[in-house]
Amino acid sequence: MRYDGSNELHARQAREKLEKLIKDKKIFDLTEKKPQRSIQANKYLHVCLSYFGCQIGETMEYVKRNYYKILCNPDTFIREREDKYLGRVKYLRSSSELDSSEFSLTVDRFRNWCSSNAGVYIPSPDEERLIQLMELEVERNKEFI
After folding, report:
1. Helix, strand, coil proportions of the chain in percent (round to 5)?
2. Does residue 7 sit in helix, strand or coil?
3. pTM
C-alpha cells in the first residue's frame, strides 16, 4: 500500500499499519517512492543511445555503459561497495534508480558530450521531428546496433 506523507489521513493510516506490523512481530519493508520518469523519457533515452551507437558503430548497450554512464555521468552511476572477498569494488548503478531530475541531468550531460566531443547532435526531447528521424535511422540500422 502506498501512502502520501503530506496527507494527514494517509500519515495516520500508515502509522497504524506500521504499529500493527510491529505489534504482531511481522517482517515488513519500508521504502521511499521517488518520482518515476515516464515511459516516453525511457524511450527517448534509448533512441538517443541507439542513434549515437549508429553514428559511431557501437551497440546501444556499449554506448549506455561506457559513454552515458562511465564517461559522461560517473558521479551519478559509479558506486563503490565492500565485497566480502574482493574488498572495495566499483559497480554501475542502474538508470532505473534515477528520479526524474537526475535523469534529465544525465541525459543533458550525454547530449552535450556527444555534440562537443563526437560531433553528433542529439535533439532535445521537444524536437519531435528530429527524434522521428533518429528513430528512423535506428530502425534502418537495428541489425547492427
Report:
1. 60, 10, 35
2. coil
3. 0.74
The model's pLDDT over 4-27, given as tens digits with 9 standing for 90+, comes to 888 898 889 989 998 998 999 988
Burial 15-44 (b: 16+ CB within 10 A, else e): eeeeeeeeeeeeeeeeeeeeeebeeebeeb
Q: What are phi and psi of 79, to 5 degrees?
A: -125, 160
CA distance 88 to 94: 19
Q: How far apart, in whole angstroms, are the C-alpha atoms of residue 53 and residue 115?
A: 14
Counting every residue, how long is the chain? 145
**CA gap 96, 93 in Å, rounded:** 9
DSSP 44-104: HHHHHHHHHHHHHT--HHHIIIIIIIIIT-HHHHEEEEEETTTEEEEEEPPGGG--HHHHH
Helices 100-113, 39-56: crossing angle, 10 deg rounding: 20
Per-residue pLDDT tens for 109-134?
999 999 999 999 999 999 999 999 99
